[in-house]
Amino acid sequence: MVNYVDAATAPLKNDGSIRLYDAAGFDKMRQVCQITARCLDSLYDLIQPGVTTAEIDRHVLQFGLDNGVVPATLGYRGYKYSSCTSINHVVCHGMPNDKPLRDGDIVNVDVTYILDGWHGDSSRMYAVGQLKRAAERLLEVTYESLLRGIAAVKPGARTGAIGEAIQSYAESERCSVVRDFCGHGVGRLFHDTPNILHYGRTNDGPVLKEGMIFTIEPMLNIGKPHVKVLNDGWTAVTRDRSLSAQYEHTVGVTKDGCEVFTLSPGGHDRPGLKPRP
Ligand code: MF3
Ligand code: CO
Ligand code: CO
Asked: Which residues of the chain have pLDDT under 70?
């Protein structure tokens, strides 16, 4: 049941039932996504050998409360944490725990905050101490694949153009693309239409329109693309236990391309390496 207030403020839907947001919606997304990005910026100092992912999670919760937002994952489908923390061969949805991070680990921290009902979803990789070359390379390729996916976004293109840009680049760099998880519409809902696949063909999927808002969040593996979910019901790992990496941005389709709402205000989006002083 939609009441009059909801009807008046509900985002427009096009025939494909994908919500379109107006300038006011873009403004709210800018606000919440910049809080998410500032939180991710604040993690570079915290993440080092010996720190636990539970400590990272507490920082994400406190940062949110200090900035007037709440983590969307807290209580989401029974998930009990403020972030996902995915280490090494964990592909996504790793649950924070009390095990200390170790030198050479790579860890993805995925944060979604809610501000006045608007969701800002982003994740980055963090290097724990000194990485091996193979891990560093995986981070670089994964980040570049996200940038190529973003570059494919414009009105008139299909979602498949994003997938093809990511997959063709990732595979040319001898990395594989995880198929089991995808990007998603986001805004007033955490997970909305359309699905944004990180593989596929340019002519697949719905046509992008100005006003759509969604995430792009490719997961790339050094080995095979196959994943399995552990008995905890959340933690997704590579079946061959090869390293996996992921970066995620929330973007809005504009007149001639897209706006990346979750860009680092400190210019710290680059792969996992500590910002230069
Ligand atoms: N933030 C994740 C995403 O990018 C979703 C996490 S849902 C959770 O879509 F329940 F696992 F936290
Ligand atoms: Co997401
Ligand atoms: Co996310």
From this structure: 1-16, 271-277
Look at residue 17 in the predicted model and tell me its pLDDT: 87
Q: How far is the CA of 248 from the centre of ligand 3 (A)?
A: 6
Give 277 Cα–ligand 1 centroid separation in angstroms: 31
- pTM of structure: 0.94
- The per-type count for the chain, helices as H runs and strands as E runs, is 5, 17
Asked if residue 175 has its Cβ within 6 Å of ligand 1, the reply is no
Q: Which of 73, 86, 92, 122 best tests ligand 1's pocket when mutated (most atoms within 8 Å of CB)?
A: 73
Q: What is the DSSP string of 2-49?
A: --HHHHHHSPEE-TT--EE--HHHHHHHHHHHHHHHHHHHHHHHH-ST
Q: Is 239:227 a contact under the CB 8 Å cutoff?
A: yes
Domains in the chain with CATH codes: 28-260 (3.90.230.10)
